[in-house]
Design brief:
The complex is a heterodimer of chains A (639) and B (103). Chain A has 639 residues and is mostly helical. In chain A, 71% of the residues lie in helices and 3% in strands. In chain A, strand 1 (63-73) and strand 2 form a beta hairpin. In chain A, helix 1 runs antiparallel to helix 2 (29-56), helix 16 runs antiparallel to helix 17 and helix 19 (431-456) runs parallel beside helix 21. In chain B, helix 1 (3-25) runs antiparallel to helix 2 and helix 2 (29-53) runs antiparallel to helix 3 (60-88). The radius of gyration of chain B is 17 Å and the shape is elongated. The chains are: A mainly alpha (639), B mainly alpha (103).
Chain lengths: 639, 103
């Protein structure tokens, strides 16, 4: 193994952020954009080299570089550093690749924006935080970067800060994820406490209780499980994961987060930040494996999210919102794949991370393609698009590749990963998961087909002047599309199971014919029904179905009124019933008490100044009275 | 106790009380000084009578009295200098008006 200075992978984007954010963007936003892109390009090459050397060596041993950060006790030391194992090496490649392509794309997309320097500084900050999260060797560092990711996501969603909807979306995303992180923090404390009590028995003197290498040690895991609190701790940590990954019922922030610039949606809300939850569960999977109840919860939450979001996605009109719900659905897929895995049937673990890997490419491609379309037609509404096939050939072809990939059509990457997830569900005996998964696959191909046909086929329904034709984007925007399309085509062929597995290495998964056949059938049914309904410019059939569904359609379209429910709970119940009285108590009792002491001493002081008259003879009286008093006391006590 | 000493002490106490009375009632600064001088001299008289009747062999009291007289003279000098300044500025030496330090 060539010794690479692995910490460089964090230092490069951090430096880029500091240089761009503090200095360069003041005088030239475009220079900042170039510096940021070159820095990430270097990081991209670096991570590829790192992954190449790492997987090339064949040993797949964990490398760790760390330094002491906080020392509480001799067996409770927090390290900060970089840990490279198969999981983080894979994530490094994904994050850096997507980030690099998004940087290139943004050179074109954000070219005319005033805040281009600010945008690229934020992108560097986000990349730094995400990479720090990925390589974290312990839960504590992960938590720090986890919050940094939340902050940079907040900044990027609220990038158009003059737009009220963007500001409120940014706040919503931050508050919802922050709320979930409370669970994460308590979980960390609980696990750290348990780990410390286990470590009293001197299992390991090298690691502190929050290190992954310590927690994932089988002996430690068994001792933690015997304490009985492991399930609680893991469920608390899963709340944090669910917040970042926007799992039901904390999913509400992700659709609104689409207010940010489209490259941001591609980077953060498709490929990197939202899979942090999946990454976290995968990171702690040896522990989850020992807590079957927690794993059961994980699988059901994932399954429900994937179904719930897929149903909503079929009714949305905003192209980015459809993609957002599609992301929710696919994340749910990954999570339930983790949930059905165990040391007996470890395929789900590999399948989940494989899907994370392929999904990153085709979903980033979908978002960037959508950005290219929005750039051309100046609207997000699919009903105002149509007929873009002949104006935007490159966007069309690459988008089609992504649609086929996410639908799970054979040679494209989504087929392999989705097939592996369904096989994992079937083989581990989770029949419900398998069937619902198949149905979600059908819905996925339906709604992806829907936006594809509505956007590219039929006639233009644009409200803009008919003589103004949309045109293809510049090469800086289409180049990442083409590269991502190549990746979306090819990444499925990677022998992923040779690199990343849990418990024991299994042979590269051979296709289970039943699953492959039914999965493909579901995809074809979905796509062809979308073609049947949406490819012509005649939507009477769609109207008929919508009216036929009646009230149910409205409820789904309103996203099951979850936003309204949360608003009701927060405004009517939390604000009025809880926050209001607390605010009253704070103002009247706490502040009042502080004010009272202040006022009392002031009044007392004012009264005290009356003694000082300025009349010498008054002072003489005081002096004499005092002298006599002291003398009397002295006489009575001492003598 | 020697009856003569008691008489001297009563005498000194009387002078002291006269001094206090003057200190408390006089409005004029010079009157105040005179009262103060009475009180100081009552103290000095105390010293010297105790020396005379109880410890005639020791000279401590005489030294003390000399000091008291010297310090009282310096004090009077300072106060009179202040009063002279006030008189030069055509202001009465009325201690009820002299309350500038209050503010």
């Amino acid at each position: 193994m060539v010794l690479l200075p692995t910490w460089m992978i964090l230092a490069i984007p951090l430096l880029s952020f500091i240089i761009n954010g503090l200095f360069v963007r003041r005088f030239s936003g475009h220079l900042a954009a170039k510096i940021g892109t070159i820095a990430i390009g270097f990081n991209f090459l670096f991570s590829l080299a790192l992954a190449y050397y790492f997987f090339q060596s064949g040993e797949l041993s964990t490398l760790e570089w760390h330094t002491e950060w906080l020392r509480f006790q001799s067996n409770l030391i927090i390290h900060i550093g970089v840990m490279i194992d198969p999981l983080s090496a894979m994530m490094l490649v994904v994050v850096n690749t997507i980030s690099f392509f998004v940087h290139i794309y943004s050179l074109g997309y954000m070219h005319d924006d005033e805040g281009v320097g600010r945008f690229f500084s934020y992108l560097s900050l986000f990349t730094f935080s995400m990479l720090g999260l990925v390589v974290a060797p312990n839960l504590f560092q992960m938590y720090v970067f986890w919050e940094l990711v939340g902050v940079s996501s907040f900044l990027l969603i609220g990038f158009y800060y003059t737009k009220p909807s963007a500001v409120s979306a940014a706040k919503k995303a931050f508050i919802v994820t922050r709320f979930a992180d409370l669970g994460f923090l308590i979980g960390i404390l609980l696990l750290g406490y348990l780990g410390l009590s286990v470590n009293q028995g001197q299992i390991s003197s090298v690691y502190s209780p929050l290190d992954f290498l310590f927690l994932n040690n089988p002996d430690v895991g068994l001792q933690l499980a015997s304490s009985g609190l492991l399930t609680t701790g893991l469920l608390l940590i899963f709340i944090g994961a669910a917040g970042k990954s926007a799992l039901f019922p904390l999913h509400i922030w992700l659709p609104d987060a689409m207010e940010g610039p489209t490259p941001v949606s591609a980077l953060i809300h498709a490929a990197t930040m939202v899979v942090a939850g999946v990454y976290l569960v995968a990171r702690l999977f040896p522990l989850f494996n020992l807590a079957p109840v927690a794993l059961e919860v994980v699988s059901w939450v994932g399954l429900f999210t994937s179904l719930f979001a897929a149903v909503i996605a079929c009714t949305q009109d905003d192209i980015k919102r459809v993609l957002a719900f599609s992301t929710l659905s696919q994340i749910g897929y990954m999570i339930f794949a983790l949930g059905v895995a165990s040391d007996l049937y470890p395929l789900g673990y590999t399948a989940s991370l494989f899907h994370l890997f392929t999904h990153a490419f085709f979903k980033a491609l979908l978002f960037l393609g959508a950005g290219s379309i929005i750039h051309a037609v100046h609207t997000n509404d699919v009903w105002q698009m149509g007929g873009l096939k002949k104006y935007m050939p490159i966007t069309h072809i690459t988008f089609l590749v992504a649609v086929l990939s996410i639908s799970g059509i054979f040679p494209f990457s989504g087929f392999f990963s989705k097939d592996e997830i369904l096989t994992a569900a079937l083989e581990s005996g989770h029949m419900t998961h398998y069937l619902v998964g198949l149905f979600v696959a059908l819905l996925t191909s339906f709604y992806m087909g829907r936006i594809y046909f509505l956007t590219f086929w039929g006639q233009s329904r644009s409200h803009e002047n008919a003589s103004h034709h949309p045109h293809e984007s510049t090469w800086v925007m289409t180049l990442p599309l083409v590269l991502l399309a190549i990746l979306a085509l090819s990444s499925g062929w990677l022998p992923f199971a040779n690199y990343l597995w849990f418990a024991h290495k299994h042979d590269h998964h051979s296709l289970n014919m039943t699953v492959a056949f039914s999965g493909t059938l579901a995809a074809i049914i979905g796509l062809s029904s979308a073609w049947f309904l949406y490819s012509k410019n005649n939507f009477s059939k769609v109207q008929k179905i919508q009216t036929g569904m009646g009230q149910a359609y409205q409820i789904i379209k309103a996203k099951f009124y979850f936003d309204e429910l949360y608003l009701f709970v927060t405004h009517k119940i939390v604000f009025n019933k809880i926050a209001g009285p607390i605010a009253w108590f704070d103002k009247k009792v706490v502040d009042g008490g502080v004010d009272l002491t202040g006022e009392m001493s002031q009044t007392f002081g004012q009264k005290l100044t009356l003694i000082q008259t300025g009349q010498v003879q008054n002072y003489i009286i005081w002096f004499i009275v005092g002298f006599i008093t002291v003398l009397t006391l002295y006489y009575n006590t001492v003598l | 106790m020697n009856s003569h000493l008691l008489e001297w002490l009563i005498m000194s106490l009387f002078i002291f009380c006269v001094g206090i009375y003057g200190l408390l009632t006089r409005k004029s600064g010079v009157g105040l000084l005179i009262s103060l001088e009475l009180m100081i001299n009552a103290g000095a008289l105390n010293f010297i009578s105790i020396h005379r009747f109880l410890y005639p062999a020791q000279v401590d009291a005489q030294v003390f009295v000399l000091f008291v007289i010297a310090i009282a003279a310096a004090e009077v000098l300072l106060a009179l200098a202040l009063f002279m300044l006030l008189i030069k500025k055509q202001q009465p030496v009325d201690i009820t008006q002299l309350n500038h330090l209050k503010h």
